[in-house]
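Exam review. A common question shows you a sequence with its structure tokens and asks you to describe the fold in words. Practice with the pair below. Do the first one on your own.
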Amino acid sequence: MLSRLCSYSIGASSSAFFGGCRSAEFRNSFIPRSWDIGGVGLVRNMASEGRQFPPQKQQAQPGKEHVMDPTPQFTSPDYRPANKLQGKVALVAGGDSGIGRAVCYCFALEGATVAFTYVKAQEDKDANDTIEMIKKAKHDSANNPLAIAADLGFDENCKRVVDEVANAYGRIDILVNNAAEQYKASSIEDIDEERLERVFRTNIFSYF
């Protein structure tokens, strides 16, 4: 749904990307203490201190990045932006944390104006943190970032998001389809029709 709707707001040179699924179970690399990502906070270099990484499993959906300790690594202090996306407008579905947050941050470093979606009342803290990261990373020529609360499992919400971004910035040059959800089950017999449809609505139908 998002890709089809964005086709009316983007040019021929625009791009769409597809991200991976986010669950409440994380497997990440980690940032040394000396790295400061967007000024939001520092994390411990546990490896150099000879300690084991703590479990990064959360029981509730969606997984929340702000409760993780250490914080996931998504950039390097040696990275040198080259303004490759200056003047572009990017929409990242599910951009509040994980892969989506990393994409938002790196796109901002490269000069893009960034908008992203998140789930209201569940991902507000991560969304606010991501907004602050983007503001600190963005190029002077880029517009302020936009965070849009939306459940993309419903067509009307996909349309609303595209309209809101296009109205705010005039167009959409890049779409990153990263919003997704998944649920663990011990057996395929434990997956009921309602849950299966829910996963497909978010992970598949919302993209097209």
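Now try the second one, then compare your answer with the model answer below.
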Amino acid sequence: MAAALWRVALAAALAALAVGAPVEEALATDDECAAGADCGLEALQHRKEVKVGVAQTEAPAISHEALLQAMAADGVPEEHLEEARAELAATAKLSAAEIEARSNGTCTTWTGGTCTISSCAASRGATECSAFRCVCRSGFCEQNGVCRFNTHRATQQYAGAWGAPTTGSWGMPGGSSWGAPAPTATAGWGAAWGAPSPSAGWGAPSAWGTPGTVGSTSSGRAGNRDTGGTCMLGDCDRSRGDTHCSHNTGFKCMCRKGSRVVRGRCVFR
């Protein structure tokens, strides 16, 4: 019995030595550990800090084509998209060290220009007016008063900005958070909106109109009479039908009572 226990203890000791050997060999080859074994913990902590620093500076992965599509969807003008294409092509030829060096630079966005009286000058590049200051759009950084495309900043801002549509971030695709996929007599557009019942001010079901359209209820409450036009600078366009517009409507071209919107035009029921 004693011999059996001794063999088990010996096997456990040999296994522990086998596991620890690679760690000791790795620390022995490290310059910080050349003076002795006391540096082992400090070396391991240093390696962890380096990895964390790299993770913080690395931009999320996104293809150049996907990045350009995201910028176009964000309203970046074509002339500035061309600048981005050229810079992305040049970045693809750089080494990893050169790309990392570029990503470590600072990025300022105010060009020094203002837009209090007029728009930002085109010579300042891809700008937008914010708080009466001409600042660089997303993906661009200020250089000598001009906004220039910055690959690292653009990647950080456009890659994964919305996040994946998971239940953890967007919630379950059901009535509790996204709303029901279609209006029903019992659930409306989801539990948050409630059922479209007469007691809720929707009027009788006969006044709801044909499914898939919007209009006004029999009680005169507007389902949606906004045509999408404005009268801020002039009268509403005649193509929108019988509309009225004033400061009371927020300078919006609204359909008159008794009519509804169909593809941006007022038509009588």
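Model answer, second protein: The two ends are 98 Å apart (CA to CA). Residues 2-29 form the longest helix (28 residues). Full marks require stating both points clearly.
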